[in-house]
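> example.struct
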């Protein structure tokens, strides 16, 4: 039904597009192990002089992690402190006050000893912007399977603007370190327009370098998680029924939606072209 998935898997996408949630649904040690935005990737973006050097460092990190898992060495991951499982949302709103929603971290860095695989296992590394920045190098490798995830662009940007993250201020610092194209985009002075152009850059790279069956839409995951994931060749860790989309979240300022749509129409051709304009009418 989907492609044959290699032992080493990459998941990338836009921030707040559902990649963390998907990773939590896929994580199923010892057969399928997910690393959710490992800190070593940010170290590599700082140390690497070229995108190719970054990818070589990433592949070496994946190989070392596989070795550690097979040896029973504890692995550091982003864990939900309330459930002890892989975190599905990094920013959690706790309460509402006169100043707005209080947002806290939805994860803690924890070191866990995983069950040692008794045979071949699959390892997924999830990170968004810096891996989007080197996607053309990732897809060239025959030892990686690369997946991308996208979400309704208006909802994605509304989510960015509802939080206090680097992208909320129009930056993807880790990716900017290795992408001259992105560094040029973030010079745009208007914050909202800069965010639209950044998201268009992400869409453009995903749809240019990944085949359709390797791109998963957030909305499809919410509507029919089993079939949406199966279409990629991946498998959920357990039975999951229809999920609740956050596209209409009360945390978002939906009064901005019309302006975002208009900016997308004029400044985001890759978003408009995606799946014959699926998101042009969203």
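> example.seq
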């Amino acid at each position: 039904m989907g492609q044959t998935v290699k032992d080493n898997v990459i998941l990338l996408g836009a921030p707040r597009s559902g990649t963390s949630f998907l990773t939590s649904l896929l994580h199923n040690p010892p057969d399928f192990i997910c690393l959710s935005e490992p800190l070593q990737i940010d170290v590599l973006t700082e140390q690497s002089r070229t995108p190719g050097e970054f990818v070589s460092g990433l592949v070496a990190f994946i190989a070392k992690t596989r070795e550690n898992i097979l040896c029973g060495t504890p692995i550091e991951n982003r864990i939900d402190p309330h459930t002890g499982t892989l975190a599905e949302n990094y920013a959690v709103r706790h309460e509402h006050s006169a100043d707005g929603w209080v947002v806290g971290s939805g994860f803690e860095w924890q070191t866990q000893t995983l069950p040692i695989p008794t045979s071949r296992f699959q390892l997924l590394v999830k990170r968004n912007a810096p891996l989007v920045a080197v996607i053309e190098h990732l897809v060239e490798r025959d030892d990686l399977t690369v997946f991308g995830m996208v979400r309704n662009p208006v909802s994605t940007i509304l989510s960015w603007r509802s939080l206090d993250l680097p992208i909320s201020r129009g930056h993807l610092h880790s990716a900017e370190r290795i992408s001259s194209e992105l560094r040029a985009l973030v010079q745009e002075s208007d914050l909202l327009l800069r965010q639209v152009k950044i998201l268009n850059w992400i869409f453009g790279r995903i749809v240019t370098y990944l085949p359709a069956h390797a791109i998963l839409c957030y909305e499809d995951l919410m509507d029919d998680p089993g079939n949406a994931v199966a279409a990629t060749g991946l498998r959920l860790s357990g039975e999951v029924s229809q999920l609740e989309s956050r596209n209409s979240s009360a945390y978002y300022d939906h009064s901005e939606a019309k302006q975002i749509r208009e900016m997308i129409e004029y400044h985001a051709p890759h978003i408009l072209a995606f799946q014959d304009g699926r998101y042009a009418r969203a």
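> remarks
The CA atoms of residues 7 and 122 lie 4 Å apart.
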